[in-house]
Amino acid sequence: MSAGLFVVFEGGDGVGKSTQLRMLADALGTAGRKVVVTREPGGTALGVELRQAIMHGDHVDPRAEALLYAADRAHHVATVVRPALAAGAVVVQDRYVDSSIVYQGGARGLGGEVERISRWATDGLLPDLTVVLDMEPDPERMSRDLDRVERETAAHAEMIRQGFLGLAARDPERYAIVDAAREPGQVFSDVFKATRVAMTRAKERAS
Ligand code: TYD
Predict the structure, then answer these.
(1) 157-186: average pLDDT
(2) Ligand 1 site-directed mutation target among 61, 95, 113, most atoms within 8 Å of CB
């Protein structure tokens, strides 16, 4: 049986994660691999409820929010991701621990505790590959005169972007930074290459 492979897509909002995720799942399926496509938050029935709680209209306290993401993740990893990997599937996932580190830890200012909570929630499960889809936040709009809200939104998007790039720099073997400001086909070519490298590495580890 082929070794399972855990591939995660990360990046700011609107960088094309869903398109790339779908393209990768299709290509691997065509190549005869069993593929499980999933997401956080909301990859399980409980996760869908937690996602609704997180996206709840009113203000959610940042620590409560971080714990809701962690609860979603713990349940998802235990009931979906680990069983799929054990069965030899490729798990292709939209967002994981790094999203919490960047959004809750960085942007919301909760720092390193968020990473510790997420590692505990997942019992230390690391992706074989994290694809960071990288794109300068809306370069056209950045060149225009922005009002205060637009400036804050742009600064936030850039902080998120730098957060993911910083995590990738920490562990280059397990990450691929892919320029997402191109045609989906070109982006996918890099995504697929990185996946094949990760697959070879995982096979070597398993043998
Ligand atoms: P997602 O469903 O991936 O939507 P998008 O298309 O905007 O990427 O993620 C929803 C939001 O949840 C996104 O803004 C990032 C946020 N998020 C966190 O803040 N922390 C987390 O741990 C995760 C998984 C997501």
Answers:
(1) 96
(2) 95
Q: What is the pTM of this model?
A: 0.94
Residue 201 CB: number of other CB atoms within 10 A?
15
Is residue 198 within 8 A of residue 7, CB to CB? The reply is yes
Closest CA to 12 of 148, 128, 162, 126: 162
What's the 1 CA to ligand 1 centre distance in angstroms?
A: 33
195 phi, psi to nearest 5 deg: -65, -40
pLDDT tens for residues 24-69? 999 999 999 999 999 999 999 999 999 999 987 788 899 999 999 9
- Encode pLDDT of 82-100 as tens digits: 999 999 999 999 999 999 9
Q: Is the dihedral of CA 83, 85, 86, 88 positive or negative?
A: positive
- Please name the residues in contact with 96: beta carbons below 8 A apart, sequence gap of 6 or more: 8, 10, 40, 73, 127, 130
- What are the sequence ranges of the domains in the chain? 5-206
Q: Which CATH class is domain 5-206?
A: alpha beta
Q: Which residues line ligand 1 (CB under 6 A)?
A: 13, 17, 40-41, 69, 94-95, 99-100, 103-104
Partners of 10 in beta bridges: 132
